[in-house]
């Protein structure tokens, strides 16, 4: 089958991509003379290196830029392709599509009838580096690649810290215009683009707007509420608006039990497990006797919930016990600057290192270097970091929060201590420090328990069963 190629990823290219979307088709490749654009996205399609064009056999090339004639000549001279269509405006493009028998009215309406529905992803706290937000963004990109039309619903409550070029975002101006006006805008967005699915990650204003839309359109709006945190705010709101929720996704068995106790119907509740990178064969080494014990933390560096302040206290306890260790802290947050100043103040630079933000694609490489995964959290839903660490063979020593016991079997593949029990946490670290063979054995068990889950996990099939299928 001939591959369809766009040359030009600027304003014209983006316009043409959206035009193709309206006909239910997409280009296979996008190229551009601007090397700085390579690896970025145009309307959800990656901009490839120009050299890949040489590998294509008889591609159908559309020049989608302002300097169409010059680029046409360039492609013919440098690559030898003469079948090049200059399409600098919509009429030219539609004419080319009809000429190439790529669309007909019948096919157009057939695609419209069969295309997959909108999925709105609630990012009420903005495009920030939180665990919920990063998970939602990754899911949206995956679903977008599967043909679903995804869009983020953000707000103006906080400044975005992540640049988004792959998925369209609508920002609801609650702070600027007020709650009523903001709810109206969000409600209208959902109504005008129904039938649709709304994945609500927070029990906030976007969720309320989705409930308003569902009250008017019923089955044309499907609300999928994801309870990420063991929080009373979630429980109260979802209990109150239970009738509007089609599915309630829980990330831990503890949250599931609490939702059932509060009256959520069992048939609406689905357990959501994290899909993470887990190698078929674990290749790593753990520290040996005489080596520094490598302790790792990855997550938001905040005091609220995460209790990053306790990592310094834990380090102090370990130093007093003459443990030779290196604590590697990955992440960013409001407490980062204070934590670094405390490390400097107490002279802990040889024991604690702040490594900064680690992208999801690099997190496995971070954990493969750690012997132990630490978490001093007061509150969690089900830590993705916990699963990612175990998949790399790091032994979790964590507090007894929601989701802890879904992964960790005490004394087998990790240890669980009470919230705030730092002395007991230090006891477990000392045990593994003095028993390195046990450390390796538990690390292998940690990896195997996560690998077994991932092997059985079919995330896309799971989501397909939740989304609207017909109208």
What would a concise description of this structure say?
The protein is α/β, with parallel strands linked by helices and about 475 residues long. It contains 18 helices and 19 strands.
The side-by-side strand order for the widest beta sheet comes to: 9-8-7-10-11-12-13
Please give the radius of gyration in angstroms: 26 Å
Backbone shape: globular
Q: What is the strand content?
A: 15-25%
The secondary-structure class comes to alpha/beta
Number of strands: 19
Major β-sheet profile: 7 strands, parallel
- Helix content bin: 25-40%
- Overall pLDDT confidence: 90
Distance between the termini: 33 Å
Counting H and I runs of at least 4 residues, what is the number of helices?
Answer: 18
Oligomeric grouping of the chains: single chain
Q: Which stretches are poorly predicted, pLDDT < 50 over at least 5 residues?
A: none
Can you describe this structure?
By secondary structure, the protein is α/β, with parallel strands linked by helices. The protein contains 18 helices and 19 strands. It has helices at residues 11-22, 68-79, 90-99, 105-114, 131-145, 174-177, 179-192, 205-217, 232-240, 253-261, 309-320, 336-346, 363-367, 384-391, 404-407, 422-434, 436-456, 459-464; strands at residues 4-7, 29-31, 41-42, 45-46, 60-63, 84-86, 118-123, 149-155, 168-172, 196-200, 221-227, 247-250, 269-271, 293-298, 325-330, 352-356, 372-375, 395-399, 415-417. The strands form 4 sheets. Strands 9-8-7-10-11-12-13 form a 7-stranded parallel beta sheet, with helices on both faces. A 6-stranded parallel beta sheet has the order 16-15-14-17-18-19, sandwiched between helices. A 4-stranded parallel beta sheet has the order 2-1-5-6, with helices on both faces. α7 crosses α8 (205-217) and α11 (309-320) packs across α16 (422-434). The longest helix has 21 residues, at 436-456. The protein is globular and about 75 Å long.
């Amino acid at each position: 089958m001939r591959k369809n190629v766009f040359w030009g990823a600027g304003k014209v290219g983006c316009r043409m991509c959206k035009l193709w979307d309206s006909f239910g088709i997409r280009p296979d490749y996008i190229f551009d003379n601007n090397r700085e654009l390579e690896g970025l996205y145009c309307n959800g399609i990656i901009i490839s290196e120009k050299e890949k064009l040489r590998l294509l056999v008889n591609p159908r090339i559309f020049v989608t830029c302002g300097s169409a004639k010059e680029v046409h000549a360039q492609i013919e001279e440098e690559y030898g392709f003469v079948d090049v269509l200059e399409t600098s405006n919509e009429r030219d493009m539609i004419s080319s599509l009809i000429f190439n028998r790529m669309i007909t009215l019948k096919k157009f309406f057939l695609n419209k009838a069969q295309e997959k529905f909108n999925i709105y992803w609630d990012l009420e706290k903005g495009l920030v580096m939180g665990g919920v937000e990063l998970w939602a963004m990754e899911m949206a990109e995956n679903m977008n690649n599967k043909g679903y039309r995804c869009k983020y619903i953000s707000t103006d409550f906080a400044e975005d810290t992540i640049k988004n070029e792959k998925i369209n975002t609508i920002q609801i101006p609650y702070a600027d215009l007020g709650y009523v006006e903001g709810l109206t805008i969000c409600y209208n967005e959902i109504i005008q683009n129904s039938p649709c699915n709304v994945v609500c990650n927070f029990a906030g204003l976007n969720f309320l707007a989705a409930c308003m839309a569902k009250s008017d359109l019923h089955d044309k709006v499907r609300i999928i509420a994801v309870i990420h945190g063991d929080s009373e705010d979630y429980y109260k709101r979802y209990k109150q608006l239970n009738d509007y929720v089609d599915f309630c996704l829980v990330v831990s068995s503890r949250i599931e039990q609490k939702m059932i106790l509060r009256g959520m119907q069992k048939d609406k509740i689905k357990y959501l497990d994290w899909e993470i990178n887990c190698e078929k064969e674990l290749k790593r080494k753990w520290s040996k006797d005489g080596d520094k014990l490598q302790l790792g933390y990855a997550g938001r560096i905040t005091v609220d919930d995460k209790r990053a302040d306790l990592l310094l206290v834990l380090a102090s306890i370990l130093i007093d016990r003459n443990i030779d260790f290196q604590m590697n802290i990955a992440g960013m947050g409001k407490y980062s600057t204070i934590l670094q100043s405390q490390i400097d103040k107490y002279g802990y630079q040889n024991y604690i290192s702040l490594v900064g933000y680690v992208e999801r694609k690099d997190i496995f490489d971070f954990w493969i270097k750690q012997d132990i995964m630490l978490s001093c959290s007061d509150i969690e839903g089900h830590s993705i970091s916990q699963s990612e660490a175990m998949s790399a063979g790091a032994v979790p020593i964590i507090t007894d929060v929601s989701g802890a016991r879904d992964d960790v079997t005490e004394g087998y593949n990790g240890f669980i201590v009470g919230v705030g029990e730092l002395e007991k946490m230090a006891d477990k670290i000392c045990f593994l420090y003095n028993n390195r063979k046990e450390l390796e054995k538990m690390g292998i068990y940690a990896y195997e328990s996560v690998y077994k889950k991932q092997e059985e996990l079919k995330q896309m099939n799971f989501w397909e069963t939740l989304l609207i299928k017909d109208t």
